[in-house]
Write a structure and sequence with these properties.
By secondary structure, the protein is α+β, with helices and mostly antiparallel strands. Helix content is 37%, strand content 25%. It has twelve helices and 18 strands. Strands 1, 4, 5, 6, 7, 11, 15 and 18 form an eight-stranded antiparallel β-sheet that branches. A hairpin with a 3-residue loop joins β6 and β7. The chain is elongated and about 90 Å long. Keywords: Membrane, Transmembrane, Transmembrane helix. It holds the Pfam family ABC2_membrane_2. It comes from Dactylosporangium cerinum.
Length: 516
């Protein structure tokens, strides 16, 4: 057995014989499990029944709610229309959201769409004028391509051309000179697709602070005129539908029927009916909802598996306390001289201590996270809370990442113990560096300040627990309290790792040069 292996065995023996350290690590695991399996939250899925969302062509959960004025197109063809006007309304947050004010929300959409039927989650390609993001070409919910940065107040001609399973989008300022936006492929698009005009307007939400927000459904109305079609269009009238489940997004009311003007009501159950009205040479179409990937917290529906790991911060407190005390305890009791007599190579002794501490912390974090991620979502669902499903690879990354978070934080706390030597001081510094930024970001700090802390402090590593992606084309509540962090999982963990490597390097330098 090598000298290093003997030191690791000696440090492990020392660790497991200190009852307080063993109990502390077990309590840390129990706290993580306790918060995850007994969250004390209730939702409405138990009352509403099935809260599941449609799944798009590429496997993601999606929102697919909009007002659709359409006709079947068999084979190839083109539709052209001018979005002559676009107005909207959204909740008035200054009066608690009880009334509405005029204003198109940034991701309100009005334009042309080719869709594989009206089933929620079916494949589509759409060219649209948005509230504040100009003209866009979007398809299959997760893909977004920018066109011109025109204002929603400016009329815009739009055109979609289908050729087999390829759809090409163009735009024009005058209906004469056209600019291509892009061409997308809709694999498996049937010979007959539903093509026409659409309008939708997503949930409007503003964050008040890190842990609370206010908002409600919004509504948009677009005037379409100069509508022309070429290709395999049958004779007959346009059909009007409000697709999806508008009651879930746009307030109470029944889905729209085939008659002009039918639909559910808009924000706060008031305003115009969602639907379509024929005008002189066109349509006035009103809609609420969205055609986009479903994001936890974006429309107030559901949470992610990250919510089950909310107890990690409490377990981390205990882990960093033990991490600091594994070294400060030896200084306090005068055992450091005995340890160094048995291991004259100080850096090897420090490495062995870090190995044992990190290994124990990783093991308890891995076990606790595995239990929580396995059983926690089912408990949340039993409480009526919808939990967005994730892949096994994501679950594995979250579970292993939680163990790694605790392990590296424990080693960082050990470095503080070496440098500061006094238990109270080292423990305080370790908690302030690793846990306090997370708590402040989740509770009292403004969102911008909290996100800054979660970029530069060791608490950035909590990003390893983010389980759902954010999308630029969805205005979600991308806050830490909703499971979204300013850094990617790997980048956030790298920040903690950099702190630990730097701290351990300085600690090793001081440990080797100074007297005990």
């Amino acid at each position: 057995m090598s000298a290093y292996a003997r030191l690791v065995h000696a440090e492990w023996t020392k660790f497991r014989t200190v009852r307080g350290w063993v109990i502390g690590m077990l309590v840390a695991a129990a706290v993580i499990v306790g918060f995850g399996l007994f969250p004390g939250m209730e939702g409405t899925c138990g009352k509403r029944g099935d809260c599941s969302l449609p799944v798009g062509p590429e496997g993601q959960e999606v929102t697919d709610v909009f007002t659709f004025v359409h006709r079947p197109l068999t084979g190839d063809g083109t539709i052209t229309a001018r979005v002559a006007s676009m107005t909207g309304s959204r909740p008035n947050l200054t009066d608690g959201g009880t009334g509405d004010i005029d204003g198109v929300v940034p991701w309100a959409k009005a334009g042309l769409i080719v869709k594989d039927g009206t089933r929620p989650g079916s494949a589509y390609a759409a060219v649209m004028l948005t509230g504040a993001h100009g003209v866009r070409l979007q398809h299959n919910y997760v893909h977004d391509l920018a066109g011109s940065a025109t204002s929603a107040a400016t009329p815009r001609w739009l055109r979609l051309t289908r050729a087999g399973d390829r759809v090409t989008a163009l735009e024009s300022a005058d209906g004469v000179s056209w600019t291509g936006i892009g061409t997308v492929r809709l694999t498996g698009l049937p010979a007959t697709a539903e093509v026409g005009l659409f309008v939708t307007s997503p949930q409007f939400t503003e964050a008040i602070n890190a842990s609370s927000a206010s908002g409600g459904p919004s509504q948009a109305t677009a005037g379409f005129d100069q509508i022309t079609t070429t290709g395999g269009w049958p004779a007959g009238a346009w059909t009007y539908d409000t697709t999806g489940d508008p009651g879930a997004v746009a307030g109470p009311g029944a889905p729209g029927g085939p008659d002009a003007g039918a639909g559910n009501r808009g924000p706060a159950g008031g305003g115009r009916l969602n639907g379509a009205v024929e005008t002189d040479g066109g349509f006035a179409v009103t809609g609420s909802g969205d055609i986009a990937p479903a994001v936890a917290g974006a429309a107030g529906l559901g949470t992610s598996i990250s919510q089950t790991l909310i107890g990690t911060f409490a377990g981390l407190v205990l882990v960093v306390v033990i991490g600091a005390m594994t070294m400060t305890g030896e200084y306090r009791r005068g055992l450091i001289r005995t340890s160094l007599t048995a291991a004259p190579h100080r850096l090897t002794a420090l490495a062995a201590k870090a190995t044992v501490l990190g290994g124990v912390a990783f093991g308890i974090g891995l076990a606790a996270a595995a239990v929580v991620v396995t059983f926690g979502p089912d408990i949340l669902r039993g409480n009526g809370i919808y939990v967005h499903p994730v892949s096994f690879a994501t679950e594995l990354r979250v579970v292993a990442g939680t163990g790694a978070l605790l392990a590296v934080a424990a080693v960082l706390a050990l470095a503080f113990g070496v440098l500061l030597r006094r238990g109270t001081v080292a423990v305080t510094v370790a908690i302030v560096a690793t846990v306090l930024p997370y708590l402040l970001s989740m509770t009292v700090l403004p969102i911008a300040a909290g996100e800054w802390l979660l970029r530069v402090t060791p608490a950035a590593a909590f990003a390893i627990q983010q389980s759902t992606p954010r999308y630029a084309q969805v205005d979600g509540l991308y806050t830490p309290a909703n499971g979204f962090f300013p850094l990617t999982p790997s980048a956030g963990f790298a920040v903690l790792l950099a702190w630990a490597v730097a701290g351990l390097a300085v600690a090793a330098y001081r440990f080797r040069r100074r007297d005990v």
